[in-house]
Design goal:
The chain is an alpha/beta fold. The chain has two domains: 63 residues, Arc Repressor Mutant, subunit A (Orthogonal Bundle), CATH 1.10.10; 160 residues, no CATH class. It has ten helices and nine strands. The chain has a four-stranded mixed β-sheet with strand order 4-5-7-6, with helices on one face. Strands 1-3-2 form a three-stranded antiparallel β-sheet. Helix 7 crosses helix 9 and helix 9 runs antiparallel to helix 10. 27% of the residues are buried. The mean pLDDT is 92.
Length: 239
């Protein structure tokens, strides 16, 4: 089966593409086998995915499997907050993420950190008061009155948009990279990152990690920013 995949030539012909489409793959195999069934092409794509040659980045979109999945690091404070939420609000959806993650991707490093706790809109204030029982620096996002740099080591409680990309790590729910990238562009509290810096962040994120564009754009649509995010992806040659 591997000989039929023609992996070496596949990489030679499509290796310069950031995004490989289903049509690209179909065209590649039909050059040698014009009558190849679509089911066979689909099976070869599956084999390429299983072997790590390709990685899926969206519906009908792939890239070469040279990057890795991003997993947000969990610290003790996040574990404690997760335990508090699980105990007091066992049935709500939530996620946490720290702003300092952007130092992996940004051109200009930040020397402060903010922890975001995103929870279902109906319980935002309840969670806020619950966290204030244990932490002195807790704010509701709507009460921010200055740049985020003025709120170092603060927990900021925000509403969680439905269908937000989240993942579970060490018994706590954290934001997926797709969510954090969209939020950085879409939400007003991140205005200081929304100039040229956002392009550096997106470019480096896509270069280093596997990002599901379909998931990202679907979430952007929930925030009425799909077209804007699509334009950024086109600018960094990801569409």
């Amino acid at each position: 089966m591997n000989s039929k995949l023609n992996i070496k030539r596949f990489k030679e012909q499509l290796g310069q593409k950031n995004t490989i489409t289903l049509k690209d793959i179909d065209t590649f195999y039909r050059k040698e086998e014009p009558s190849i069934p679509k089911a066979t092409v689909s099976w070869r794509i599956y084999s390429l995915l299983q072997q790590g040659v390709l990685q899926r980045i969206g519906r009908g979109k792939y890239s070469f499997g040279t990057t890795q999945c991003f997993v947000l690091k969990i610290n003790h404070k996040m574990k404690q907050i997760a335990q508090t939420i699980k105990k007091k609000y066992p049935f709500i959806k939530y996620c946490q993420w720290e702003l300092s993650f952007i130092n992996i991707f940004s051109q200009h490093l930040i020397n402060f950190n903010v922890l975001f706790v995103d929870v279902e809109r109906e319980v935002v204030e309840s969670v806020y008061y619950g966290l204030k029982e244990n932490y002195s620096r807790v704010m509701l996002v709507q009460n921010l009155y200055d740049n985020l740099s003025e709120f170092d080591n603060t927990i900021i409680v925000r509403p969680l948009i439905s269908d937000s990309p989240i993942q579970k790590n060490e018994n706590t729910y954290v934001a997926a990279l797709e969510k954090m990238l969209v939020d950085l562009y879409a939400d007003k509290e991140f205005i200081s990152f929304q100039g040229n810096e956002i392009y550096h962040i997106y470019q480096n994120a896509f270069d280093k990690y596997t990002i599901n564009q379909q998931t990202m754009l679907r979430y952007a649509g929930r925030k009425n920013k799909r077209e804007k995010i699509e334009n950024i992806l086109k600018t960094i040659n990801r569409q």
